[in-house]
From TrEMBL:
Entry's Gene Ontology molecular function annotations: dipeptide transmembrane transporter activity
Name of the molecule in the record: Peptide/nickel transport system permease protein
This protein's GO CC annotations: plasma membrane
Recorded topology in the membrane: Multi-pass membrane protein
Subcellular localization, as worded in the UniProt entry: Cell membrane
């Protein structure tokens, strides 16, 4: 088990380093922050002074080493816009993002998993076809399109809900639905496929032939085995809670981390962008590590394999 955790931890560290390196290089090759913040009409001396103050006139490899050295000392940099610590700007926005993504995750799991199980248990029925039609529709419609449709119908035409902002809980309803629908559709499709594959296995037919009630077969045999691929998708959704809110927060003018990322990228606010990407990478890595540990609890064969490997 320790060997397994050590390998996963090493892989997580390498993944985070690669993500941060990629972001570091791409951001510095995509444009000069000095020209965006100071404007192209600024005196050359002012632009040069700005670059020197922020270390942008150093070679790229020097900036890279300095950046990683700062990370190891807990310094994620300061915003070029207002001089505040990047980590402070990002953490201020996290509660707003979680206020959308956590209820949306509950909708994804609470609707997607039961719908997929029900569709699999009633294969080729009218209910199965309806679930799959809605799942395909929810999966294929881009989140920004769905968000605009919801705004047009419920905010503009009916006037029931606000179209944007964060003044009250009513402002969160449309963005939460927008985030939740697509994920519920994905979970419904994957859960149905996983259940159908398990229901076709010999051990299911054997349990039924022994006279075990069908409800017990589904509860004790089908669901635990079908949970493994479903947990993988849920883990990915948990890991992408922050990244998945970028578009929706922009559509609904929600002051979360996703909207901050869009603004920071447009302004080439390097420290803020890098801080957000580091947060996203760490969230994804931690979620994947938790999923790997859950595999052992869900599948005794994997747990036995890891234990044997440790010895």
């Amino acid at each position: 088990m320790l060997r397994f955790l050590g390998f996963r931890l090493l892989r997580a560290i390498v993944t985070i380093v690669l993500v941060v390196t990629f972001a570091f290089v791409v951001l510095r090759l995509s444009g000069d922050p000095a020209l965006l913040i100071m404007s192209v009409d600024a005196p050359p001396e002012a632009i040069a002074a700005f670059r020197a103050a922020w270390g942008l006139d150093d070679p790229l490899w020097v900036q890279y080493i300095r950046y990683f050295n700062a990370i190891f000392h807990g310094d994620l940099g300061r915003s070029m816009r207002d001089g505040r610590d990047a980590i402070v700007l990002v953490t201020e926005r996290i509660p707003a993002t979680l206020a959308l993504t956590l209820p949306a995750l509950a909708i994804k799991i609470g609707i997607g998993v039961p719908a997929g199980v029900y569709a699999a248990l009633h294969r080729n029925s009218l209910a199965d076809r309806m679930v799959m039609v809605m799942a395909v529709a929810g999966f294929t419609i881009p989140s920004f399109v769905l968000g605009l449709i919801l705004v047009l119908v419920f905010a503009v035409q009916l006037g029931w809900l606000p179209s944007g902002g964060q003044e009250s809980w009513r402002h969160a309803i449309l963005p939460v639905i927008t985030l939740g629908v697509g994920g519920a559709a994905v979970l419904a499709r994957f859960t149905r496929s996983a259940m159908l594959e398990v229901l076709g296995q010999p051990f299911i037919r054997s349990a039924s032939a022994k006279g075990v009630p069908w409800a017990a077969v589904v509860r004790n045999h089908a669901l635990p085995n079908a949970a493994i691929p479903t947990v993988t998708i849920i883990g990915f959704m948990v890991g992408s809670l922050i990244a998945g809110a970028v578009v929706v927060e922009s559509v609904f003018s929600w002051p979360g981390v996703g909207r901050l990322l869009v603004v920071a990228v447009a302004n080439r606010d390097l420290a803020v962008v890098q801080c957000i990407l580091l947060l996203v990478a760490m969230t994804m890595v931690i979620a994947n590590l938790i999923v790997d540990l859950l595999y052992g609890a869900l599948d005794p064969r994997l747990r036995a394999t890891r234990t044997a490997g440790a010895h």
